[in-house]
Amino acid sequence: MKLLQAINLTKKFPNKLAVNNISLTINQGDLVALLGPNGAGKSTTLNMLIGVSQPTSGKIIFGDKSASIKDYKNEIGVVFQGSVLDANLTVKDNIMTRAHMYTRTVQLNSLIKKFELESIWKQPYCSLSGGQKRRVDIARALISSPKLLFLDEPSTGLDIQTRTKIWEVLNQLREDTGLTIVFTTHYLEESENADYVYIMDQGKVIAEDTVAGLQQKYTQNVLQLDYLTGETTTTTLDNKDEAIKILVKNAKLLTNFEYRPGTMDDVFMNLTGKEIR
Ligand SMILES: Nc1ncnc2c1ncn2[C@@H]1O[C@H](COP(=O)(O)OP(=O)(O)OP(=O)(O)O)[C@@H](O)[C@H]1O
User: Fold this and answer.
1) pLDDT, tens digit, for every residue of 33-90?
2) How far is the CA of 18 from the centre of ligand 1 (A)?
3) The model's pTM
4) Which terminus of the chain is less hemmed in, N or C, by CB atoms within 10 Å?
5) pLDDT of residue 213 exceeding 80
């Protein structure tokens, strides 16, 4: 079921066409990635979807009707790239101040537990590590029990363990509550977990599909076989099942093999001719 649609969204700044006529469909329950290099227009797109910035043209449909942000602001949670929390307040005060603003809230205790906030509950926000801050930011965005969570570059600057931990919690939440998540990223490996990916470059969506669909369209899986005779062959294949068939058939003739599935790095490179970073 479609939860949010953006149709022909464009954002022109005085000297920059930041977003150029893009359309997105966010289905309920999906994890959707907006992937692209610096300056691709990801944050500008997100800002229009959350009402921080007005589109120059285009429209947004929430549920089944054309919407302005006031129609759906209670249904969304947002985690910005830079935190909006009060640096001098404790985690508790930041969270509780927010909780008092809403009549419909999640079970705070379960949120505190999920994001492991107990041990930092009385610490000032400014004294937290990057990963701890991000956990508090996300927990705060979920207090109003939103249907749709927007995350702008959720793991930029975080180490791999912290990133993995945050995604574990978010995936658990998706499983438990059916939460829909839209996130921007320039980490290719992060986009590989998404249900649907929009690849942006220079203000445009240059490709969109599931990860498997993108890999199918824009990459090749390569099987290299090293034979007892010393010969080496390289073959491109549609999928790993074909590789398994070839390997089984030739098992006795081989000294070694390597199977390299197409990656999101290859997808981006094939689409743009450049690396994402
Ligand atoms: N307020 C503004 N005025 C003028 N130009 C802007 C403004 N905001 C963004 N831009 C420009 O629009 C383009 C897209 O910026 P945007 O921040 O959306 O990119 P991004 O894909 O989110 O990049 P990053 O990954 O670095 O956050 C950039 O060239 C940026 O300089």
Assistant:
1) 999 988 999 999 999 999 889 999 999 998 877 767 777 788 899 999 877 788 889 9
2) 6
3) 0.88
4) N
5) yes
Ligand 1 binding pocket includes 39 (Cβ within 6 Å)? yes
Q: Is the pLDDT of residue 104 over 70?
A: no
Q: What ipTM describes this predicted complex? A: 0.96
* pLDDT(254) > 90: yes
Distance in Å, CA 40 to ligand 1 centroid: 7
CATH architecture type of domain 2-213: 3-Layer(aba) Sandwich (3.40)
> Would the pLDDT of 105 be above 80?
no
Residue 36 Cβ inside 6 Å of ligand 1? The answer reads yes
Give the residues across from 72 on adjacent strands: none
Q: 277 pLDDT exceeds 70?
A: no
- Centre of ligand 1 from the C-alpha of residue 28, in Å: 28
Instruction: Choose the residue to mutate in 15, 16, 187, 272 for probing ligand 1, maximizing ligand atoms within 8 Å of C-beta.
Output: 16
Taking the CA of residue 184 as reference, the ligand 1 atom at the shortest distance is 22
